[in-house]
Design brief:
This protein starts with 5 loop residues before the first helix and ends with a helix. By secondary structure, it is of the alpha/beta class. The longest helix is centred in the C-terminal third of the chain and has 16 residues. The chain contains nine helices and seven strands. Strands 1-2-4-5 form a four-stranded parallel β-sheet. Helices cover 37% and strands 12% of the residues. The protein has two domains: 100 residues, Aldolase class I (TIM Barrel), CATH 3.20.20; 98 residues, no CATH class.
Length: 212
């Protein structure tokens, strides 16, 4: 999220390390390329988890994946990786058709059996609740997309009073930990993209095979 400092880019280049930046807008993609990074992830607003916007406020950086990919592909010469709203091979084909060189899948693998997500999180990804996601700052202080639950509904009006990351993240950690131990989904951060209903409910190997 954002740009690494110049000294870090220079040292990485010396060591042959590939650098990939995340862009939520075309402007961010151009800056990533100009900064010497090797590839750019075009992260659409349908992606789950935290938003990587760094040039403009998140509210001004909510471009859908399949609108963002062709614009970024036209704007830069470095490889473009599509992220957000891709959870099956149809999405992979669409991303390539729009100019992506590859895809990044998060929520799809989060739902697989080997995922590090909690049991309750995986259960929610497999439910009809995953059809509704929103951007919220309530859990960490940064905008992130997740499944709507009771905490989000009850406190949504208070988002303006939420302290920034990492303070809010630290304040919410005890609640999240207790909720995970109790299997209580209403007080967990259930990160998920808008393609969550298409995610794999199987082993990671089976899911990968279905994508290929």
């Amino acid at each position: 999220m954002g740009l690494p400092p110049v000294w870090a880019v220079e040292r990485a280049k010396i060591k042959g390390i590939v650098l990939i930046g995340t862009a939520t807008t075309v402007a961010e993609a151009r800056v990533i390329e100009a900064s010497g990074l090797d590839a750019v992830i075009a992260s659409g607003s349908d992606a789950g988890g935290h938003r990587g916007a760094f040039l403009s406020p998140v509210e001004e950086s909510l471009v859908g994946t399949f609108s963002l990919i062709p614009q970024v592909a036209d704007a830069v010469d470095i490889p473009v990786v599509a992220a957000g709203g891709v959870a099956d091979r149809r999405g992979i084909l669409a991303a390539h058709a729009l100019g992506a060189d590859g895809v990044q899948i998060g929520t799809g693998f989060l739902a697989t059996a080997e995922s590090g997500a909690s049991d309750v999180h995986r259960k929610m990804l497999a439910s009809s609740d995953a059809e509704t996601t929103v951007l919220t700052r309530l859990f960490s202080g940064r905008h992130a997309r997740g499944i709507v639950n009771s905490l989000i509904r009850e406190l949504s009006a208070e988002e303006g009073a939420v302290p920034p990351y990492p303070l809010q993240n630290a304040l919410m950690q005890p609640l999240r930990k207790a909720a995970a131990q109790l299997g209580e989904s209403d007080y967990l951060n259930l990160w998920a993209g808008q393609a969550a209903p298409l995610a794999g409910r199987m082993s990671a190997a089976e899911y990968m095979e279905s994508l290929v």
